[in-house]
Amino acid sequence: MTDLLDRTAPTDTPILDVLSQRWSTRAFDGATAIDEDALAAALEAARWSPSAFNNQPWRFIVARRGSDAHAKVVDSLVAFNQAWAASAGALVVFVAELSRDGREFPSALYDLGQAAAHFTVQAHSGGLATHQMTGFDPDAVAAAFGLDGDLRPFTVMAVGAAGTIDDAPVASRDGERAPRVRRPIVESAVVNA
Fold first, then answer.
1. Are 17 and 156 in contact (CB under 8 A)?
2. Which of 102, 105, 185, 193 is the most exposed place for a label (fewest CB within 10 A)?
3. 130-165 confidence digits (pLDDT tens)
């Protein structure tokens, strides 16, 4: 068994450890059940994330490994993601509420992203690994869980105990070991006056 490498980001400016140490693994421990307290805390962090006008336009489908809900979410994933995400202790579908009572929420996807980010940071702080995916069939998820047209599945997050490099599919192992890189701030800041 081979341990995962230290994946702390080489930041240009010091940031919170929980942020620099967070990364998206494809190696989950398929034998360890989800830590229910850590999962509850991550959901609570998502619940308390900011949203425009406090609309809270997010919904979550929490599917623990071994449940029918988990199997449905796994079935919606593209084959590449199925190969590793099924081992996670839970799959959480982040669903945007695009409108309510005939009123559209133009910031729904932004607000949902904030909820996912808060979830991710809290999950990492609680010892859980995460990996977000858009490689899934949103229509299949909506049909499987009876979501109406105002609710749009937007991303799936694998959540659980981190595994070792041996738990990652062979095709993903180089990526698990690769250096972490981001483009410099000067390339992202359109204006920084």
1. no
2. 193
3. 999 999 999 999 999 999 999 999 999 999 998 888
- The pTM for the full model equals 0.92
Which of 159, 161, 164, 186 is CA-nearest to residue 46?
159
Secondary structure string (H, E, C) spanning the chain: CCCCCCCCCCCCCCCCHHHHCCCECCCECCCCCCCHHHHHHHHHHHHCCCCHHHCCCEEEEEEECCCHHHHHHHHHECHHHHHHHCCCCEEEEEEEECEECCEECCCHHHHHHHHHHHHHHHHHHCCCEEEEECCECHHHHHHHHCCCCCEEEEEEEEEECECCHHHCCHHHHHHHHCCCCCCCHHHHCCCCC
Residues with Cβ within 8 Å of 10's Cβ and at least 6 positions away in sequence, in order, are 179, 180
